[in-house]
Amino acid sequence: MATAGYLFNERPPAGLLIAQAVGITASTYLLGGNATIAFVTIPAVMDAPSPLAAKQWARVYERAKPFGIGCSVIAAACTGFVAYNQDPASLPFKLNAAATLIIPAIMPFTVLVLKPINDKLFAKGDALALDEKAEVGVAQEETTKALIDRWTKLHLVRTAITGVGAILAIWAALDKRETGSVGGFSLQSGANRLG
Hints:
The structure is a single chain. The chain is mainly alpha-helical. The protein has helices at residues 14-46, 50-84, 91-102, 106-130, 144-174; strands spanning 179-182, 185-188. The chain has one domain (14-176). Helix 4 runs antiparallel to helix 5 (144-174). This is DUF1772-domain-containing protein.
């Protein structure tokens, strides 16, 4: 971790290293979970008949929701804590601050963009549970499969948002463009050595 004020031969405090590790782990775990839903789970759901597909989608959604919220909050809290303890002029601070804002952005994205589709899919599941022919005469773009397909495409946007946040947190951890000096002798690395 490139924390301002620490020389190359000094270790940052353990709390910062732990927060950084937890932030990276939570954000990449969320990225992997979201990608798995989009590329593995939903394609299998789409193979099922509409009544079962609606039920399976709802089950995946209800199980994934607390996971997504928890990982988002943990990752944002950790990257925010790390940023708070860094020099605001440093690249790691800027990257961690951006990750702190980007990672939990999936929550308002979900509410503003995905919620209308979620509501339709939950209603489809309820209607199809009562009557398997509930989709007869429904516009093609409003069928269970079309709604799940549209939801998956928007879920991929949510996955990309998480991916950007995870990449920023990792980049911040790997950036080592700090200056260290002892007495009159200074040691510079990265872009800092250019002046």
